[in-house]
Fold this sequence. Notes:
Elements: E1 22-30, H1 39-48, E2 53-61, E3 64-72, H2 75-89, E4 93-102, H3 115-123
Amino acid sequence: MEKERLLDYTAIPDFAKLGFEILAFTFATSKKPGVPEEQVPKAKSFFDKRDDVIFVSTCSGNERNRMNISIHRSYSDYVTFTRALEKEWGDSMTNRTSFIVSLKGDTIIRNLTFKHLGDYIKANP
Length: 125
């Protein structure tokens, strides 16, 4: 798997113990179909400056075709993030919505980890 570059040795910390309270999944719809060539460098530049964003991609579902996953220390940090999104992308995106997960809640069934995926891959080569 290492030779084929299927592994990335990025550790996933316990975000709550590091002081993060919110994991946010944000979805939006681009006003232009597909991924316009001119948007890719702009999006890369914007999200490369955002250390609170951990994943960005196109997607499909619920009439949305863009998404990102971000992490925040507080609700006010999350609001600051959404304002930055609106300022930068408000003219080219519609239907923005977020799904917010509390990392300090007492009902987390399984913490974010890839351990179980590794176990699955070993058992199902």
